[in-house]
Design a protein that fits this description.
This protein has 201 residues and is an alpha+beta fold. The protein folds into two domains: 37 residues; 144 residues, Ctag/Cox11 (Pfam 04442), CATH 2.60.370.10. It is built from three helices and ten strands; from the N terminus they run ααββββββββββα. The chain is elongated and about 50 Å long.
């Protein structure tokens, strides 16, 4: 059936609206997509550490990056560590807000190689919640994790010797309790974190 010019224009407008919607929802949509499909080396989440700890070790490397519009600085406190498979480990990432305004961020993350993602289990992580840094504030953000011993019984992942955990921070809208403070922020006026200003997990 031939589409009239009016219907074609309406369809194009509809496509444009959908594309704009996806652009605003890119970070949460990507995170949801990874959780459902496992794409991008999505990690596992655990409520407690492993009951089994092996003698075999795994090298864990850490990577940090920022979205083009994110004004923070962000880096891993350690470039790599060696952990026993099943052992609970703790790593830190350092984030700073050099601007004169509060900035909120949300971290997207992935693991490589992808086949190891499902065996990299986080117990606590700053990426689970949005983060808010005050002007001039620097924080150390922890991630507690272990490598599931089941990785050694997976034909595709058992040969893995090194896992890289990477985070990218994106700027997001300030929560309401911080948004009201943003217009009043002056350079250097607020250098200490407010009580409860950041949830480190």
């Amino acid at each position: 059936m031939k589409m009239t010019p009016g219907k074609m224009a309406l369809s194009l407008v509809g496509v444009a609206i959908v594309m704009v919607g996806f652009s605003f929802a890119a970070v949460p949509f990507y995170s949801w997509f990874c959780r459902v499909t496992g794409f991008g080396g999505e990690t596992g989440v655990a409520t407690a550490g492993s009951d089994e700890i092996l003698d075999r070790t795994m090298t864990i490397r850490f990577d940090a990056s920022l979205d083009r519009d994110m004004p923070w600085t962000f880096r891993p406190a350690q470039r790599e560590m060696e952990v026993r498979i099943g052992e609970t480990a703790l790593a830190f990432f350092e984030a700073s807000n050099p601007t004169d305004r509060p900035v909120a961020g949300q971290a997207a993350y992935n693991v490589t190689p992808y086949e190891a993602g499902g065996y990299f289990d986080k117990i606590e992580c700053f990426c689970f919640t949005e983060q808010v840094l005050q002007p001039g504030e620097t924080v150390m953000m922890p991630v507690s994790f272990f490598v599931d011993p089941e990785i050694t019984r997976d034909r595709d992942a058992s040969g893995t010797t090194t896992i890289t955990l990477g985070y990218t921070f994106y700027e997001i809208d300030l929560p309401e309790e911080y948004a009201s403070l943003a217009p009043q922020a002056q350079p250097g006026a607020l250098t200490a974190p407010l009580e409860g200003a950041i949830d480190t997990y």
